[in-house]
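INFO batch 0412 | record 1 of 1 | parsing
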Amino acid sequence: MEDFEAAKKRAAELRQAIEDADLAYYVNDNPTLSDYDYDQLVIALKELEKSFPKLRTPDSPTERVGGSLSRLFAPVRHVSAMMSLDNVFSIEELDDWFLRVKRGVSQLDYSDHEKLEFVLEPKIDGLAISLVYEDGVLVRAATRGDGRTGEDVTANVETISVIPKRIKNSGVDLLEVRGEVYMPIAAFKALNEHQQLQGKPIFANPRNSAAGSLRQKDPKVTASRSLSFWSYQLGEVRGKRDFTTHLETLEYLLQLGFPVNPSIALSSSETDIKERIEALNELRHDLDYEIDGAVVKINDLKLRERLGATSRAPRWAIAFKFPPEEQVTLLKDVMVSIGKSGKATPFGILEPVFVGGSTVSLATLHNEDQVIQKDVRPFDYVIVRKAGDVIPEIVGPVLARRRPDSQPWRFPSTCPMCGGPLVRSKDESDYFCIDYFCPGQIVQRISYFASREAMDIEGLGEQRVSQLVSNNLVKDPSDLYHLEISDLLKLDKFGVISARKLVEAIEESKRRPLYRVITGLSIKHVGVTAAMKIAGKVKSLPGLLVVESSDLSELDGLGEVIANSVVKYVKDPTTRTVVESLVEVGLGEATSEGSVRESFEPTLSGLSFVVTGTLSSFTREQSERAITLRGGKVTSTPSSKTNYLVVGSNPGASKLVKAERLGVRIIDESEFLETLESGGSDKVG
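INFO prediction complete | emitting tokens
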């Protein structure tokens, strides 16, 4: 009995939390929970109701669709119910759904096809809309609402250019089209830039922006927000039309002029569907719209009808939710880090949270203007976003959960590492520590010098560099080459073997090519590609010391900004000394790819490559250098401008799928070697 009472109390708490979140999400367009946290509340309530069936009531959030209705718009009854979809969060849960479907089909004695066919669609992160056409004219557009009743947003939907206002030759008296209104990412970025210029709060994400834009009282505001639409379902149809499959209905919608997502695919293989879901997850950051999962639907319409639905969701479809890219967590403090150039970057210390496939405890805030614009404060609950492999970002605060004694955060006036002043120029958005010998800058510069992108000194990461700097063993990169085993043995966590390995790794780095040394200097605007071009021109480190701006600005892809930055670096007494010290210890003397660049014919000029998987003849960096040394270009993901996708073992599924879709030529390692030798056959122009 005590267990039941405790469960009853917990169920009431969960229902209240879900209802509060529904109000914030559906009505106020200002969510207080991430989608992931919301889903976890619903799952917890479902588990309780499963364990204690008496707790399940008809008005439970687990039994109903959608959320509350806004009072800004007139309520409208849907022609037929707009149901939600049940969610799964893992391949194992998807397998369970496939099993349930097959079990249900077997009970129906289904024999229309030898195999079940499924349609896979991207799950658009937008706002579900029902469009009703009578005699070919759009007469009503409504939000999902609670599934039975939605909000009449016809006037605003009519401003969305991709939605037909009149359709010809539909062949029906009444036609209902369902889909998702969304804000393209490009439009979202432009909107936030406009908000910043106007001194107004920025929007948290495209989904909230789309929902807020669609619920504007003035349709002119909606029209200015560049909303778009994907149709994904044919609803009620009254007239002489007979469809047998879901794909037929999508083809019909396409013929009528409705946008249908090009990533939709048909498959009868569960394995293929799982692989496509994985590929879609990897591709999501290449799209100009946000998706938060994939939807799997049975293709046969009669079979759908026979399988039916629960009180809130059809049995013939399921939504596979991707790992969350946004979460809500506590911002414990705001601090400032000092980079290798002295730039002071604010960052947030977070209550650890799982987002974007990993647990994060730190997130960037970019600069002072961003902190002020977002009005993020210590002890706020904040929305944290991590898209793909990028650094987690604090999107903004959850104002409904802000403490009453909250105070705005102020950018510090002194460097947290050296105590010197932090200075912001009028034409800069960032503060800088102006002391070149600030310990924070020294650690970051030497760490970058030792990184894989530059000198690739194994075992010399940031923590170890910090240890060397704090013990006054190094203050610039050349000091590394004077370290001895006896110096390292005086430090914590160093034994004879580890000390010898580090000294040997440092000595081995003397064999790195010149362009890597130039990369490691941390010259403003100079990355690997620019360093390779500079190395090809100056030939040696002493040559770098006497180079003139006119020598470099004439090189393809450099220009005056980079050329002037290089010359400023080598003529400044402090940084010139760094280069001279590296010359003294013998760096930049090895035969380098950069220095012999001109001995390669530009056989790949005008060609663009993407490399995926592991090649036996090259490391990833070596393969990319082999391309760029011959005049080619390397990008991270296929696009319409890509000529070749080079495929090694264990390639990325998303890159293969995208390359196939774009018609990019796919070559293996042997073909790649031939291309390097003879040049490509797909030159532009």
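INFO post-check: The longest strand covers residues 326-338.
INFO record closed
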